[in-house]
Design goal:
- The protein is built from 9 helices and 10 strands.
- With 304 residues, it is of the alpha/beta class.
- It has a single domain, classed as Glycosidases (TIM Barrel, Alpha-Beta Barrel).
- The protein has an 8-stranded parallel beta barrel with strand order 3-4-5-6-7-8-9-10, surrounded by 6 helices. Strands 1-2 form a two-stranded antiparallel ribbon.
- The two termini are 21 Å apart.
- The structure holds ligand IDC.
């Protein structure tokens, strides 16, 4: 069984030694439920050597949980994913993917119900990580995120007292300095930083470096090498600068996303329907580079 994750002195650990999680995020599970399956998770573990998967459930967009989505069905997909990940000894992040809804307080009642249910279902599972909101933006200020976190975290902790919890930060999870200035009053919490290398560059890396040095627990739970729109060219030079920092700081990182939509950020070639055994030609440029980086991370972890 995987060990419980514990934040010690700003670092993610298994209670004794530092741990790095890396792997892929699904697209929204209402869009692409097909990747939440044994075949794909196993391939991500064996072929790409990753140790974590993020299961994304949009709250608003495309049959989102709070906008007419089939709540029970979405929860079933998550439960299936959690169980598959557990069987493969992989950690799994349950992502409450706010985006156009901006402020997590908009759907706080639905979030309370969702996280009460999830944390009860998975109370005995060490591999589950709760991401309480993806990317606050606009009206989703740090004050609002704090208010929201103070309602949701105690609900999760009631059922699952030791679980790791990740929260989004304002400005599409770039403003981690807000958390440094005013951290949440809860333990075992990490703060999200998201980057898209062709858009977010040196300034954001400098902020990350400063916050990590100040021992803020930061988790990069979404990145890609293209523009923040999910489109445009990948920026290889910037991507390498990001990977260098991630490596030297020993951070965890999860890439967006398992999809064949044709967008640059979708790691599979447009229309590729394979669920495992991907060859180079089945991957976009972003997918090839991200896979290779995961293999490199895995080598480094294994050589420790
Ligand atoms: C994008 C998807 C796209 C979908 C859109 C919905 O790739 O297929 O139509 O969301 O608005 C994020 C978000 C993530 C975005 C992604 C790329 O967390 O949901 O996915 N992105 O734009 N933040 C920065 C970039």
């Amino acid at each position: 069984m995987l060990k419980k994750l514990k934040v010690i002195e700003g670092r993610l650990t298994d209670g004794e030694k530092p741990v790095r999680l890396f792997g892929m995020s699904t697209h929204g599970i209402a869009w692409h439920p097909e990747y939440v399956c044994e075949e794909t998770f196993r391939a991500l573990k064996k072929e790409w050597k990753t140790n974590c998967i993020r299961i994304t459930m949009y709250t608003a967009e495309f049959r989102g949980y709070c906008m007419g989505g089939d709540k029970e069905h979405l929860k079933e997909i998550i439960e299936k994913g959690v169980n598959i990940a557990e069987g493969l000894d992989m950690y799994v992040i349950i992502d409450w993917h706010i985006l156009s809804d901006q402020d997590p307080m908009v759907y706080v009642d639905e979030a309370e119900e969702f996280f009460a249910d999830m944390s009860a279902r998975f109370a005995d599972k060490n591999n589950v990580i709760y991401e309480i909101c993806n990317e606050p933006n606009g009206s989703g200020t740090w004050a609002r995120v704090r208010e929201y976190a103070d309602r949701i975290i105690p609900i999760i902790r009631k059922n699952s007292p030791d679980s790791l919890i990740i929260t989004g930060t304002p400005n599409w999870s770039q403003d981690i300095h807000c958390a440094l200035d005013q951290p949440l009053a809860h333990s075992n919490v990490m703060y999200s930083l998201h980057f898209y290398a062709a858009t977010h560059k040196r300034t954001l890396r400098q902020r990350l470096d400063r916050c990590v040095k100040a021992k803020l627990p930061v988790f990069i739970n979404e990145f890609n090498l293209c523009e923040a729109s999910g489109k445009g060219d990948i920026d290889v030079e910037e991507a390498n600068a990001w990977f260098d920092l991630i490596d030297s700081a020993g951070l965890s990182c999860i890439s967006w996303c398992l999809s064949n939509s044709g967008d640059t950020c979708a790691v599979f070639a447009k229309g590729c329907t394979k669920l495992s055994n991907w060859e180079d030609s089945d991957l976009k440029d972003s997918g090839r580079m991200i896979r290779d980086e995961f293999l490199h991370f895995a080598d480094e972890e294994n050589s420790k």
